[in-house]
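In this supplementary section we document a worked example of the pipeline. Step one takes a protein sequence of length 240 as its only input; no multiple sequence alignment statistics are reported here. Step two produces a three-dimensional model, which step three serialises into C-alpha cells for compact storage. The input and output of this example are shown verbatim.
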Amino acid sequence: MLEDALGYPLRTDDRVATLIVGGALIVASVFVLPAFVLQGYLLRVLRSAATGERSAPSFTDWGELFVDGLKLVVVQAAFGFVISIPIVAAIVAFLLGGVTGSEAGVAAFGTVSLLLVLLATLLSILVAYVLPAAMTNFALAGELRGAFDVEALREAALSGRYLVGVLFGVVLGGVINLVAGPLALLLIGVPALFYGQVVTYYCFGRGFAEATSADAIAPDAETDVDADSDASSTARSDTL
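The serialised model returned by step three reads:
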C-alpha cells in the first residue's frame, strides 16, 4: 500500500495542474465555499481508491464537487455531534457543581464532569477511527445513508486491513504535513499539503475496500481475469 499510496497522486497526466489547483483550494478555503469543493474532490479520491483506480481523479464537474463536498461535511458534522454530547454534558455538570455551593455537590458534579470528559475522549478516538469508513461507504453508495450503514462500518472497523489503511493514512499524511508545513508559509509547500491529503484519503479508501466486499476489480484486472478465463476455456477445448 505504501508505494501505491505515494504514487497515486502522481500517476495522472494532469498531476501538476491537479496539485496546483488543490493547493489553491486549500489557501482559498478561508472563504468557506472552496473548502466544499476540496472536500468533494477528496470524496472522489475515496471512491477512486476503493474501486481500485491507480491514478488520482482530475478536477472536473465543479458543481458536482461542491455538492458532494457539502454532503461530506454534513457526514463529518454528524459524527462530530456524537462527540459534542458528552462534552456539553460535562460543562453543564461542572456548572451545576458550582451552583450547589456545597463541597459535596462540587465534588460529585466534578467527578461526573471528569467521567464525561473521559467518555468524550474515548468517543473521539472511536469516531476518528470509524469516520474514514463512513466517508468511503458514502462515496461508494452515493447516498448519505451509506455513511451510517452500521453493518458496513462494523465489518470494516473490525478488520485488520482497515486498521492498516487508517494507520498508513494517518502516518503518511502526518509525515508529509510535517515536511510541507514550514514551506506552506512561502506557498511552496501548499501543493505538498494537498498531496498529503490525497495520499491519506487513498489509504482510507483502500483500507475500507480491502476490509469489505466493496473492493471492486480494477478495469485492468478485470481484463486480465477475462483473458485468463478465455485462455482456460481454450485449453479445455483443446484437451477435449
